[in-house]
Amino acid sequence: MNRSVSAGPEFWSERQGFLQRMGIGVSLCLAAGLAAMGFTGFLAISELLHSSDPGWSHPVADEQHGAPAASPGGSGAGTSDGAVNGGSPEETGAGEAGGEGEGEGATTVGQSAPLDDSPLYRIGELGEVTCTAPELDKDDSASVETFAHAIADCLDEAWGDYFTAAGLEFTSPNRIYWTAAGHSPCGAFPSEGTAAFYCGANQGLYLGLEDIVAASADNENPEAYTFLISHEYGHHVQGQSRILAQFHSARAGADQEEADELSRRNELQANCLGGVFLGASGDSLGYGDHERSNILDDVELRSDRGRDRTHGSAENGRMWTAHGMDRVDPASCDTWNVDEDLVR
Hints:
This protein has 344 residues and is α+β, with helices and mostly antiparallel strands.
């Protein structure tokens, strides 16, 4: 898949989702016609194109894209929905480092759908996914970026096909991979304890190309980063199915203890949805029992530590991730309707 990246600073880059980029040919044709129009008219129309077609790449940094892990109430930043390693940008929309907020645009499912009755649970198994990923050199940001894009491309295709088959609207997330500090609609990045996050406000998948390696204790195993990306992407799936909107609504009126429990349910569901993708794509990626063990060990690194109670225990993090991998069905990821012991 060809990837166009516009010129920009050398510390982070932004790229729109695969499905959005499909409109670039039409945009180029329009651009040729616009050349004959006045400069003022061009500016006006180009602004409209920019707003409606997020497929244009306009890195604010140079060539690196990243996405902090999303978490409903803990990992991440600001208003993100989830973040890797401590906080979650997605959670209230003002989480820790990035934040997922609800984002505007993500779904066609009615807002009245309860958290335990999402259309996502009535579609069936994700189905086998064929993915290819390049070699990964964790010490080379360019290599990490290329790897992250390959996995995200596969996620775009897998979940896009899944939603389309169910007659549901789906838009791929924008990818923002960083190597230097910046700001998202959900807050500044990086922030303490946040290496990746999902920001619903702009449907952004944020990932620190160097931060995710540090957060994974310099893990050399590519499957660990595949899980991290698929977890954050899981928050996007929640957003597209209106689960995040319902989560944020419920959390807004909750006390701290209830809010933390809701955040854990949200994060553990993202773990499970990430597991669903891993279960569906594992064969093509060459992930066997050894890689599965590495993934579950990495899940522990991203579980609650100390006084933080927003992402779930190591035991429950492993359990929900493994459950998704084994069942390969989002219906098995309904963390909103299970006993509290399963989401501690």
